[in-house]
Amino acid sequence: MKLTYVLMVTAFLQVSLAGNAQRLTLSAKAMPLAQVLEHIQQQTGYHFLVTDQMLAETNNVTAKFKNKPLADALKECFTNQPLGYEIKENLIVLYRKPLAETTKAADVKITGEVTDDNNQPLPGVTIKLQGSNTSTQSNVDGKFTINVPDGKGTLLFSFIGFTSREVQIVGGRTAYNVQMRTQLKSLNEVVVIGYGQQRKADVTSAVTTVKSENFVTGPVTDAAALLRGKVAGLSISNPSGDPNAQSQIQLRGNNTILGANTGVLVIIDGIPGDLLTVAPEDIAEISVLKDGSSAAIYGVRGSNGVIIVTTKSGQGRNGAHVDYSGNASVGQITRRPKLLTAQDYRDQIKDGIRDPSYDKGSSTDWLDAITKKFPVSTLQNASFSGGNGQTNYTASFNYRLLNGMFLRSDHSQITGRADINHSMFDGKLKFNFGLLQTNFNSRDFNYYDYRQAMRMNPTAPVVMPDGTFYQEPNNFEYQNPVSDAYTVDAPNSAFSSRYNTTISFLPIEGLRLAATGSYTKSGYQNLSYENHQNISTLRDKQNGVARIYQGQAVSRFLNLSAEYTRSFGDHRFTVLTGYEYQDYNNFETSIINHGFPTDIFGYNQIQLGVAQKIGQDIISSKRTQTNLISYFARATYNYKEKYLLLASMRIDGASQFYGASKPYGRFPSLQAGWRLTKEKFMENQTLFDDLKLRAGYGVTGNQPSQSFLAVGLLGYGNYILYNGQWIQTLSPSQNANPALRWEEKHETNLGLDFSLLKNRINGTVDLYNRRVTGLLYDYIVPSPPNLYNSTKANVGTLNNKGIEVSVNFVPVKTKDFSWTSTVNFSTNRNKLVSLSNDLYQATLPYFTAGSTGPPATTFTNIVQVGHNIGDFYAFKVVGITKDGYWIYQEPDGSTVTYTDPRFKHAFEDKQVVGNGLPKYYAGWNNTINYKNWDFSVTMRGAFRFQIANLQRADFELPGIMNYNRMASAYDKIYGVAVLNKNVAQEFNSYYIENGDFWKIDNINLGYTFRKLKTKYIRSLRVACSTQNTFIITKYKGNDPEVDLSGLSPGIDARDVYPSQRIYNLSVSASF
C-alpha cells in the first residue's frame, strides 16, 4: 500500500494556525477529491494523511465558495463521502466512516492504541478484520476503534515502512495496545550517493550506508569511530589512547606510494569537510562509496574512497522537540608492560648483576607516576528541532571533554550547529542556510615521556627532598617524565567556522536546479614554553625555550547543478550535470626563541629571549594557495525495475599541475545492474525477496599534496663571499616536467545484493580489482643536460584487489524479543607492479620505509617491485647459542651466528620476515532487544599479519644497565639462553610477532523508560558501556591494533600513548 502523504510538521518559531482562521476559495465541478485536497493544501499549508486506496473509494466534489472558513469548507467537501477527517494542529487525518450495515447488535467495539518502535503514537495505521471488509485507521494520537462481530477474529495492522502485525482477539477483551516494528530493510529506502540519492533497489555500485541507530555506541573520539567494524573493507582504528589522536581511516588498502594524498574524501551535507568538525551526535547517517565507479563522480579526490555524512534535520518533526544526551567515562591502560621493580633492582645488586650505585633509595612505579588518578571524560549534547510545512529548523550544542590517562593530556571541543530549511511556491523553491562552528583546546602528552617512564630507575624518587625533580643530566636520553610534564607549558587551540547555503528550484516537472555555496575559515595556535627547570634546556643551557606556531586558512566552495528526471512507461531516466569550484588559502608562521631572563612571560613575551638578539632565533612563514575547477555529468536508466545503467564523467583541473601540458584529468565510470528476481524464471521461487547482480568500472585520480610539480623551481642555498659581501645563492631545486599528470586508479567491481526469507537475511558480496597507474616517483637523471639531478615522473604501477562480504540476519524476532546480527569479512592485498619504464629507470627495484630510531637507527620495511606493500625487512633469527648469541638464517638458506666474522650485519644479510598489513578483516555486530532493554556487542578482528614490537627490541636487551628493562629481558630465548649482554640493539625477526587479534570492542546495556508519568519527557534512556573491552591475541605488546597507515605499517613504536579501556555511563532524554 502506497502512502500518499506522511508529513509531520511543526512551525519554525512555533506558528500556531487555527482551523477557522484559514479561508478557502474553490470552484469545483465533479472534481476528484484528491485534487480538492491539493487545493486545500496549497491555500492553507495543512497536509493530509491518507492512502491511495482510500482516495480511490471517494466521490467527486461539486462545490463553489469564496473565503469560506476551513472547517466549513471541509464539511461541505466531505458531505456524502465514505471518509471522515480529524484536524490536529497542521495535520488532517482521513479515516473510513464506519458502515452502518456492519454494526449489528452482536458487534463488539474494540479500541486501542498503535505505537512505533519508540512508543510514540503512530497515526494512519490500517486496522482490518481479516476475512471481512471491516477496517479503520488510527487517528493522530494513534488510537483506533473498530466493530467486530461477536468479538471474534484477527486484526491485521499494516503501515508502510513497518512490519505488519496480526493480533488475535481474545474473548471478553476489548482493548489492545499494539506496537509496530520498523522493517529491517526496504528496497525503497533512499541511499545517498555522489551529488544525489538513489533507491536502494536501483544502486549499482559498492555503497554502504550506516544509520545512526546502528552506529558504535558509547563515547567516541571523533565521527569516524562511529563506523568502526561496521563496513566491510573500511578499516577504522585508533591505535593510540591519546585524547587528541584522530581515527585512522583506510578503505581498500593503499593507492599511492609517494607525493599524493592518502585520506578519504569527506563530504558533509554536500560540502567537502573534516570529520573532526561535526559532532557524532549530530549525524543521521553515513554513506561510504567504496568502489571506483561510485567515487568517479568526485574525480581526483575520490581515489581513496568517499565518506558522505548527512546530519540530522528538523524535517518531519511535529511540534518543538528537545533532545539531550550526556555521559561520563573513565579509562585505564589496556595492558601494562611488565618492567623491573625496585625490588628487582635490589635483588640484581645482591646477585652482582648491577652495581650498588643503581639503588637510589626509593621505590617508584614510573607508569603510575605519569598516570592521572581518576581521569573523567564527559559529553553533553542538546539539540532543538521543529517546523511546519514551509519552514523547519534544527540547532545543536555539543561539548566534549576527553581527559587523557597521562599527565597534562586533554582535549575539549565545543561544536555548535544551526540549519534552517524554507520552501515556497508549493515546494518548488527551497532555501537552506547552515552554520557549523567548532572550537578545540588541548594539551599534548609528549610520547617520548612514555619511553622515559619505562626507562627510569624504579629506585629513583620523582621529587628530591629539596622539592626539585630528580634528574640525571649526564645520562643521555634519560629524563624524569613527571618533570617534563610540569616544566613544559604547551596549550593548543584551533577553530573551524563554516557558513553554507543551498538554493534549489523546480521550474518544470522533473527538472531541479540547485546552487550550493560555502565559506570555511579555520585556524590554529600551538604554544610551548620549556622553563628553566626543564631537563632539555638545562642540558643545552638555553634558559627557557618558547615556540609559537600558528596559521589560518580560508576555503570557498561553489556547486551549480541541474538534474532532470523523466519516466516513459517502463522507462525511467535521470540526467545530472554540474560545475564545481573550490579554493584554499593558508598562511602559517612560526617563531622559536630561547634565553629568557625569567619564566614569568614565556611565549607571551617571546621577544624577551636573547636568541633573537644574537641571531639564533628561528622565524619562518609559509603561504599555500590551491584551487580546483570541475565539470561533472551523470545519467541513469531504469527499465522495468529490472535492468539498471549508470554512466558518469568528471573533468578536474587543479593548480598543483600548473605548467603541465595536460592539467585537466578525465574520470569516467560505467555501472550496470540486473535484478534477477524481476525475471519470469524467478517468479515462482519463494526463497529470495530480491537478488541483484552489479558490475562497475570507474577511474579516479589522486590529488598531489605538493604544488607546482610540473615547472622548474629554484631554491635558496648557501652563502658565498662576493666582493666583500655575503650573498645567499640560488640554485635549481626541481626540473620542469610538463608531461606530469594525475595518478589514476582504474577499478573494476563485481557485486551481488541479496535478500531472502522475507528479509530475515540480506547482504552484499563485492570483488574488486584496482590498478593504479602513473605513480609519482623521483628518478635520478643526468645533470647536465638537466638542471637538477632528479625528476618527478608518472611511471609506477600498483595493484590492489580483494573481496568483501557483509551479511545481516535476524535469528530471533518475537513480540518482546529480537536479535539482529551483522557479519562482515574482507580481504586486501597491495602489490607494487613496476617502478620503471623506457624513459625513466629506478636506480633500484625497491626503496625502504620506516625507522627503528636510535641506537639501531635502521629502516623497518621495504617496498619492492613484484612484492606486497608492508613487508618487514630484517635479519632472520632462527635460534640462539648457549652463550646467548643470535643464530641467523642467511637469504641463501645457510646459518651463521652473531659473532661469525662472515656475518656483516649488512643490507645483503636481510630478507622479508613478515608483513604489517592484515590479509583478512572481520567484524561481528549484535543487538538484542527485550521489552525496554537493549544490549549490543561489537566485535572485530584482523588476521594474517605481523607486528614489529620495537619496545621489546629496546627493553629486552639485558646488557643495558643505565635504563630499566622489561622483566622478559632475562627470559631464556627459545628456552636455551638469556641474550648475551654484549649483543647490541638490532632489528631482527625475533621482535616481529604474530599480530592476529579478535577484539570485543564495545559492550552496551541500556534501559528505556517509554511510559513516563509526565507530559514533558517523551522518553528516557540510561545505559552503561565499555570500549576496547577484551582482546584475544598472542601479541605481547600493549595492543595489536597498531598503526597500519603509509608504507611502514605494523610498527609498535617505543614513543606511544598506549590504548585504553573505557567504562562509560550515559543518559539520554527526549522532551
Automatic annotation (TrEMBL):
<keyword id="KW-0998">Cell outer membrane</keyword>
<protein>
    <submittedName>
        <fullName>SusC/RagA family TonB-linked outer membrane protein</fullName>
    </submittedName>
</protein>
<dbReference type="InterPro" id="IPR039426">
    <property type="entry name" value="TonB-dep_rcpt-like"/>
</dbReference>
<keyword id="KW-0732">Signal</keyword>
<feature type="signal peptide">
    <location>
        <begin position="1"/>
        <end position="21"/>
    </location>
</feature>
<dbReference type="InterPro" id="IPR012910">
    <property type="entry name" value="Plug_dom"/>
</dbReference>
<keyword id="KW-0798">TonB box</keyword>
<dbReference type="InterPro" id="IPR008969">
    <property type="entry name" value="CarboxyPept-like_regulatory"/>
</dbReference>
<dbReference type="InterPro" id="IPR037066">
    <property type="entry name" value="Plug_dom_sf"/>
</dbReference>
<keyword id="KW-1134">Transmembrane beta strand</keyword>
<comment type="similarity">
    <text>Belongs to the TonB-dependent receptor family.</text>
</comment>
<dbReference type="InterPro" id="IPR023997">
    <property type="entry name" value="TonB-dep_OMP_SusC/RagA_CS"/>
</dbReference>
<dbReference type="InterPro" id="IPR036942">
    <property type="entry name" value="Beta-barrel_TonB_sf"/>
</dbReference>
<keyword id="KW-0812">Transmembrane</keyword>
<dbReference type="Pfam" id="PF00593">
    <property type="entry name" value="TonB_dep_Rec_b-barrel"/>
</dbReference>
<dbReference type="Pfam" id="PF07715">
    <property type="entry name" value="Plug"/>
</dbReference>
<keyword id="KW-0813">Transport</keyword>
<dbReference type="InterPro" id="IPR023996">
    <property type="entry name" value="TonB-dep_OMP_SusC/RagA"/>
</dbReference>
<dbReference type="Pfam" id="PF13715">
    <property type="entry name" value="CarbopepD_reg_2"/>
</dbReference>
<keyword id="KW-0472">Membrane</keyword>
<dbReference type="InterPro" id="IPR000531">
    <property type="entry name" value="Beta-barrel_TonB"/>
</dbReference>
<dbReference type="GO" id="GO:0009279">
    <property type="term" value="C:cell outer membrane"/>
</dbReference>
<feature type="domain" description="TonB-dependent receptor plug">
    <location>
        <begin position="200"/>
        <end position="306"/>
    </location>
</feature>
<feature type="domain" description="TonB-dependent receptor-like beta-barrel">
    <location>
        <begin position="437"/>
        <end position="873"/>
    </location>
</feature>
